[in-house]
Amino acid sequence: MEYGLIGAKLGHSYSKIIHEMLCGYHYDLCPLPTEEEARAFLAKRQFKAINVTIPYKKLVMEYCSYIDPRAKSIGAVNTVVNKNGLLYGYNTDYMGFAHLCDAHGVSFAGKTVVILGTGGTHNTTSAVARDKGAAKVLTVSRHPDPEKGELSYAEAVSSGAQIVINTTPAGMYPNVGVCNLDVAAMPDLEAVVDVVYNPDKTELILRAEEAGVPVAVGGLEMLVAQAVYAAEYFLDRKFEDAPVEIRRITAALRRDMLNIALIGMPSSGKTTLGRMLAKSLGRTFVDLDEEIVKTDGRSIPDIFAAEGEDGFRTKETAETQRFGKEGRQLISCGGGIVKKPENLRALHQNGIILFIDRPVDALAVGGGSVIDTAKAIAEKLGLELQIDDMDFDAALLSVQQGKADIVMAGVTVTDERKAVMDFSDSYATGIQSIIVPEGSDIASPDDLAGKKIGTQRGTTGYIYCSDDFGDENVVAYDDGLTAVQALNNGQVDAVVIDNAPAQEFVAANPGLKVLDTSYAEEDYAIGMAKGSSLEDAVNAALKELKADGTLQSIVDKYITAE
To answer: What burial letters (b/e) apply to 128-145, b meaning 16+ CB within 10 Å?
Structure first.
């Protein structure tokens, strides 16, 4: 090979991507699991230039005819150039770490620095800290040697350090979430620097951010910087502006490798938009709700029924943590994912989080009518309205368990639901409509027999279609948008859904139409816990809102058959 990297394990190395992006030459990853293999490779000298990683940074020095003074003092070589059969050794890890600290404004002058770990990278970072004027450099180990002046992690907390540097593999993929130092108990910290670059934000960095440490940065930029400076040795030339190249490649790597997580209210378009973005960006699409179902083996309504919302949220967190540590994914999250801070934390460690900010009254669940009606009722009763948006099944269960006072989401009164909750008087009549492609042979509800029907999970559309045509012919989706997308893709023959969102979906999807004949008509009411003290007051408010025309104006605005 001409250029490449040697080490015992290279499975998740970014070096090939960085070098080929920077210089265009072919760069090989050459894993050498044993010292014997490494020695044989070095003895042959059949390369132009290589990088060296764990555990051969000391071993390679035996084969070098020349070792840069800085590399010699550190006791490690990570860059080797073959000049006419003679090997020249350098340490660009030093230069990479120095760049990382300079780029993020880490000032060592007069500061106390604690370095976690005692391996080779400790020597590199220690050299940088001392060269930049650190007043004191302390070493921290899980098994400290007092004769060497090493501290325990508990002792490090009370060291008065201003800067923490992690050189251990703690928190490195796949063992994310590991952190041995309580940075929150170190009020004097000015900077926390972690040489680990996968995940992008280790547990140590996340905790430092949460503790308000001014500078908290991982090791990706160091990795890129050392590669840029290594390439200068490889090619025996300087880049015109190395810092600019480092920033460019670091940004490109992050764009390519980090996850994109979509959050937002139910029916805001996370799944539909996520699938489109994943395809466009060449990323793996992950629907967390689908993954929960795959892992558990039960539908989401069944999980809610058996374990309640708390049980579902526990499973949601487990799946979020599983996928959050991976990379190059487009993750569509459930509407309730924001309820647990640890979920956002898991997504944040190796990705960016985008909130789909769709107005409530534009949601494909008749959201505007619900919100406006709820506001009008609260005003009549002199109460403060607090809205907690959640999945349909979760909303119903939340009221049954007394966690919410009322549920309003186009809830149809059914005998099954009346058995577990009370309802107000009806405030509107809803219509279940049928969406089909133009040219479909489905012209009436009767034609749905033997067809694949898409519905929103937990709604009366799902219940009615399952009763009428059998569970095997009904496909339940988390939201109407996904159901309509399935219709566009030919995965189902029709979609049954409330008329208001049906009209919106058809307007946004040329080639679809709503049948003139509705599938069902139903009364919408406000759900409450059994024996709720609010029932009489809500009914009185509804009566007044009907009498003064307020309720009808809301209904006319949002729930129509046109």
So the answer is: bbeebebeebbbbbeebe
